[in-house]
Amino acid sequence: MSSENYTFENEEYRQRYWHTCSHVMAQAVKRLWPEVKLAIGPAIKEGWYYDMLAPFAFTPEHLEQIEAEMKKICKEGLKLERFELPRDEAVSFMTQQGEPFKVELINDLPADSVISFYRQGEFTDLCAGPHLDSTSRIKANALKLLSCNAAYWRGDSSRETLQRIYGIAFPKKEELEAYLERIEEAKRRDHRKLGKELGLFAFRDEAPGFPFYLPNGMVLQNTLLDYWHKVHKKWDYLEISTPQIMKRTLWETSGHWDHYKDNMYTTVIDDEDYAIKPMNCPGSILVYELEPHSYKDLPLRYGELGHVHRHELSGALHGMFRVRCFTQDDAHILLAKEQIQGEVVRITKLIDEVYSVFGLPYRILLSTMPEDHIGTRADWEKAESALADAITSIGKSYEVNPGDGAFYGPKLDFEIEDCLGRRWQCGTIQLDYQLPGRFDLEYTDTNSEKQTPVMIHRVVFGSVERFIGIITEHFAGAFPTWLSPVQVKLLPVTDRAFEYADGIKAELESRGYRAFVDKRNEKTGRKIRDAQMEKVPYMLVVGDRDMENGTVSPRHRTDGDLGAMSLDAFISLLAEVVDSKAVK
RNA sequence: GCUGUUAUAGCUCAGUCGGUAGAGCGCAUCCUUGGUAAGGAUGAGGUCCCCGGUUCAAAUCCGGGUAACAGCUCCA
Which of A25-34, A351-360, A375-384, A441-450 is least confident? Predict the structure, then answer.
């Protein structure tokens, strides 16, 4: 069967298609600028890229030129032919072609590997394939070069910085347009843009990477945390709060001073070294150590909304997604080995409960033993199967992420998928066999013997800041009513209705709702438009008619005019939406 | 941190060849009292990111900072 019998929905065919596009792009570049050196050009999840070294920086105009040349190559209908060469011939071939990166790649291939090439017209590339059979298979008017950026050769920051050109292509022009539209939609939802427009948060040059919460953002955060408190009370967590700054000796015991110092902010107090906490675990441990513990205390669940600081590289900062100080909705659970599975089930149920409130689907990843680890293989296997069994026991499934665990234990990661299909790692459950031992933690078991507890680190939101960023984009700023900074905006038709509106506002506030009156000297249409732009869920138009009949005229931001009704009727409607935490 | 790009009014952005700045929105005042997505008029706002250089003259050209953006590396 020829590869062209596949459809584009087929993953393997898609990869083949994009990989061929990447060769066509490289060919176009070499035709335009023969002096450019090629590195690697794989197909990726969406599209492809090619890394290259050029004596000048590519600009959008260059990309247009390359794109035009690519279209020409597609129309030329060049056949792709595979051939193999022995290693020494492969090296001399690429040396002769003036491609040092390709020579390095060939030299690094394992001794027994087959070294294959693909030729199309005058262009030949080192490549394992597979490919389409001809460049004419690529739909010339449905391909686009998206951007050009820097990338390190072999992902190594100590090596050459190359230029990476990203591209995308589809078999139909409409699919390309839909893809580009999705990118535009993501831009419209960018939480940095919405955060500014909606008055949620801000950044200043005076504090790069350290967010300022504005009044609306503070309401959102507090509402989120109120909910967090409620859920954690229900699941038997004990809330604590530990110091921001603690002595160097503590961080030496925990291992952070040796392994995490580059990311820590430090200070000196009374001639002693201190560090601002980058993580909450050592603080929780100090609380545990305050008194002796019995097996009857376990699992002991310390919850902490811990404000941590980490010195991230300036180039890594990204709105609320990557900041230098953030709040983890952390918990440290101390428990006996045999309690692990049951506790993991509890945590998974809690996480499931929270994510479903936001309407966020997720998948679970099990990260197993990395090469660099502590503890015996048997212990690891036991821990990994405890995590795996916990997930399957509640009818959920997981994917394995081999070797991606922390050095001190395996973990479960919860990856949220937002409404644009983008994935975000939020929740995580990590088993830790190391820290309790480093701090000599113990509990007394049923035989009056001292035992070392296991520690579970877990977060649900991950970081409150990142979670706020994610839901801002997920809801495009139109938060569900229970989370909206302003839930009801009263729009008096004339100033005769101000007093009536104030009375309704007071009534709503006394019931715990967030209401505001728009008393600007503007027409109703204008007030509605502005409230819509602010994404307020409910607008209450009140005018002479309502005052006469004792009604309000609610308008929902998506459902439109709901018609006049009594205030009581509106309040019960509002109560139902808010209390159910509906995504509305 | 690295590579590239960018920085002009509260916001979004124009500003040609180097001759000390403009629009729309917002804001203020006045008119307008208007029932489901923008009523009208007038007006006030600028250390053109910071420091230095070239020049008779710099928002504009050059160098160095800072910050943001895209990506790499790293990560909640």
Answer: A375-384
Rounded Cα distance, A574 and A537, in Å: 10
Which pLDDT belongs to residue A5?
55
Taking each continuous run of H as one helix and of E as one strand, the counts in chain A are 18, 29
> What's the whole-model pTM score?
0.93
Q: What is the largest CA-CA distance in chain A?
A: 94
Kindly report the backbone phi and psi dihedral angles of residue A105, in degrees, each rounded to the nearest multiple of 5, phi listed first. -60, -45
Asked if A246 and A272 touch (Cβ cutoff 8 Å), the reply is no
Beta pairing class for A362-367 and A411-417: antiparallel
Torsion angles phi and psi, residue A80, rounded to 5: -95, 125
Nucleotides of B under 7 A from a protein CB: 1-5, 11-12, 27, 30-39, 66-76
Q: Could you list the active site residues of A?
A: 281, 310, 328, 330, 332, 411, 457
- What token pair was written down for A10? 């087929």
Please report, rounded to whole angstroms, the spatial distance between the CA atom of protein residue A503 and the C1' atom of nucleotide B74: 54
Rounded Cα distance between A584 and A573, Å, is: 12
- CA distance linking residue A179 with residue A168, whole number of Å: 9
| Measured CA A491 to C1' B21 distance, in angstroms | 40
How confident is the model over A42-89, as pLDDT tens digits?
Answer: 999 889 999 999 888 888 888 888 999 999 999 999 999 999 888 888
Q: List pLDDT tens digits, range A282-322.
A: 999 999 999 999 999 999 999 999 999 999 999 999 999 99
CA of residue A508 to C1' of nucleotide B37, angstroms: 25
CA–centroid distance for A553 within its chain: 40
Burial class for A579, CB neighbours closer than 10 Å (0-12, 13-18, 19+): exposed
Coil, helix or strand at residue A404: coil
Q: What CA–CA distances, in Å, run from A419 to A358, A359, A471, A476, A578? A: 11, 9, 10, 10, 22
Instruction: Round to whole Å and give the CA distance between A267 and A572.
Output: 54
